[in-house]
Amino acid sequence: MGIIKSFKNNFAGLFKKLFNKKNARIGIYGPPNAGKTTLANKILRDWTGDAMGSVSHMAHETRRARRREGVTIKTNGNSITLDIVDTPGLATKIDFQDFMAEGMEEGEAKRRAKEATEGVIEAVKWLENLDGVILVMDATEDPFTQVNVTVIGNMEARSLPLLIAANKVDLEESSPTTIRDAFPQHPTVAISALEGKNIDTLYEEIAKRFG
Ligand SMILES: Nc1nc2c(ncn2[C@@H]2O[C@H](COP(=O)(O)OP(=O)(O)OP(=O)(O)O)[C@@H](O)[C@H]2O)c(=O)[nH]1
Ligand SMILES: [Mg+2]
User: Fold this and answer.
1) Does residue 58 line the site of ligand 1, with CB under 6 A?
2) 174 in a domain, yes or no?
3) What atom of ligand 1 comes closest to residue 38's alpha carbon?
4) Among candidates 91, 149, 78, which has minimal Cα distance to 119?
5) What is the mean pLDDT of residues 36-54?
6) What element of type H or E holds 162?
7) Residue 211: pLDDT band by 50, 70, 90 thresholds?
8) Ligand 1 near 65 CB (within 6 A)
9) pLDDT bucket at 197, cuts 50 / 70 / 90
10) Which residue range forms the structural domain that includes residue 96?
11) Burial 117-147 (b: 16+ CB within 10 A, else e)
12) Going by CA atoms, what residue is nearest to atom 24 of ligand 1?
């Protein structure tokens, strides 16, 4: 009995190794407020019917990484199954006074700043476990920031695929070309995660880059 059981277990393990390709684990990264959770929600809504998390105009809304496994994206001819991780916004400076300026009282603002700092650490730790990154940038802002350059440098150093989403192109002042010109070595897709603009092109690029 013991021998049969052990044979079964070994066979199951071997079968898994040979035929069960692991899902690509893709992290959604970027500075606070770039629209990472809005994009994660859009992807999940389009392909699973669920949502990932809450969205807010206030920075550092997401303070814990959230993962959704087995999201299958189908584009013309391509199909890819991903584990998607929405991460807390990366920042080089977190100041509780910024939250007070948004109307929070001091105690709450300090708590929030501490959580946001822990969120940044968590997001950086997650980078180790990923097969690829979608870097979301707000196309109305300057792309040459320490956060963007650090994430890109990290992925390049590990030869992992990166896709840039130049988000908020529904806003008149957006300039996705500035982002494209800043990082010409990586594919950039101009999208509006909020309105769904150009989202099909993003799905095609996702299937191409991470498939
Ligand atoms: N106009 C416009 N606004 C957007 C778009 N995507 C997100 N937003 C807005 O930007 C704000 C931040 O969106 P979130 O999805 O919470 O951003 P995030 O990157 O997850 O932010 P953190 O979790 O705080 O790091 C919200 O007010 C969104 O409604 C977009 O494509 N166009
Ligand atoms: Mg978020």
Assistant:
1) no
2) yes
3) 15
4) 91
5) 95
6) strand 162-167
7) confident
8) no
9) very high
10) 22-210
11) eebbeebbebbeebebbbbbbbbbbebebeb
12) 60
10 lies in a domain? no
Question: d(Cα 159, Cα 41) in Å, to the nearest integer?
Answer: 28
> Distances from the Cα of 204 to the Cαs of 79, 142, 208, 211, in angstroms?
10, 26, 6, 10
Contacts of residue 132, Cβ cutoff 8 Å, sequence gap at least 6 = 24, 25, 26, 27, 155, 160, 161, 162, 163, 209, 210
Secondary structure class of 38 (helix, strand, coil): helix
In this structure, which residues have their CB less than 5 angstroms from ion ligand 2? 36-37, 61-62
Distances (CA, A) of 128 to 90, 111, 123, 131, 175: 15, 27, 10, 9, 31
Note the pLDDT tens digit of each residue in 176-185: 999 999 999 9
Number of domains making up the chain: 1
- Cβ–Cβ under 8 Å, residues 36 and 89: yes
Determine contact, residues 65/88, Cβ cutoff 8 Å: yes
Partner residues linked to 54 by β-bridges: none
Taking the centre of ligand 1 as the mean of its atom positions, its distance from the CA of residue 157, in whole angstroms, is: 29
> What's the CATH number where 164 sits?
3.40.50.300
For residue range 67-83, what is the model confidence (pLDDT) as tens digits?
999 999 999 888 899 99
